[in-house]
Amino acid sequence: MRLFINSGSPFARKCRIIVRELGLSTQVEEVPTMTLDSVPDHVAVNPFAQIPALATDEGTFVDSTLICEWLAAHHGPYPLYPQGEGYWAARQLEALADGILESAVKMVIETRRPESERSPSWLKRWEEGLRRGLTAADRLCAIAEGQPGLAEITLAAAATYTDFRFPHLDWQADAPRIVALRDHLEKRQSFIDTYPS
Ligand SMILES: N[C@@H](CCC(=O)N[C@@H](CS)C(=O)NCC(=O)O)C(=O)O
After folding, report:
1. Which of 5, 6, 50, 160 for a ligand 1 pocket mutation test, highest count of atoms within 8 Å of Cβ?
2. Separation of CA 84 and ligand 1 centre (Å)
């Protein structure tokens, strides 16, 4: 299998963590990819020239959550979500965590534009959304022992990515449970191996 990634991408990191938690590192070749180059090999797998993208003998997949679900279904079992009672709360937490990531990634893209093309009002809107997302996710967040679910993985990756790109945001006092979850999960080998750079 080939997984198109880059070492900073938090969406790719979700998949890279699942690959490691599943013990699939030797079966998944990580292909470092410059998305803006729209390399034909990459675009053939992801028409949007985004990462992550997964090529397998059974087909190609875009979208980090779908890729994690496919890997867990075909190379698991892996407890991506709790069964029963906790399922919808976990999916809601995951959606909030993905929303935090989307806000942060949009801010990164905007700050990379030439200054004359940047929109301070959109940057402000995305930063406000990111802050509200962290506060909302903090209310649902808890630490569980054992292999982490996809909601917890995504939220911890979102917290680390926010600090990696925007160390000045100073959000931690508003989301202490997320800080504790992040500090707990970043000690796992799968997280250490994929720390953004
Ligand atoms: N919903 C997608 C989002 C993927 C995404 O936004 N990837 C970013 C990198 S973190 C990307 O490829 N950006 C380059 C671009 O959009 O051109 C997922 O979950 O995989």
Report:
1. 50
2. 31
Please give the angle made by the CA atoms of 35, 41 and 43, to the nearest 5 degrees: 50
Q: Which domains does the chain have, with CATH numbers?
A: 2-75 (3.40.30.10), 84-188 (1.20.1050.10)
The tens place of each residue's pLDDT in the chain, 197 residues long, gives 999 999 999 999 999 999 999 999 999 999 999 999 999 999 999 999 999 999 999 999 999 999 999 999 999 999 999 999 899 999 999 999 999 999 999 999 999 999 999 999 999 999 999 999 999 999 999 988 889 999 999 999 999 999 999 999 999 999 999 999 999 999 999 999 999 99
Pocket (CB within 6 angstroms of ligand 1)? 9-11, 35, 49-52, 63-65, 105
CA 103 to ligand 1 centroid distance, Å: 11
Choose the residue to mutate in 3, 6, 11 for probing ligand 1, maximizing ligand atoms within 8 Å of C-beta.
11
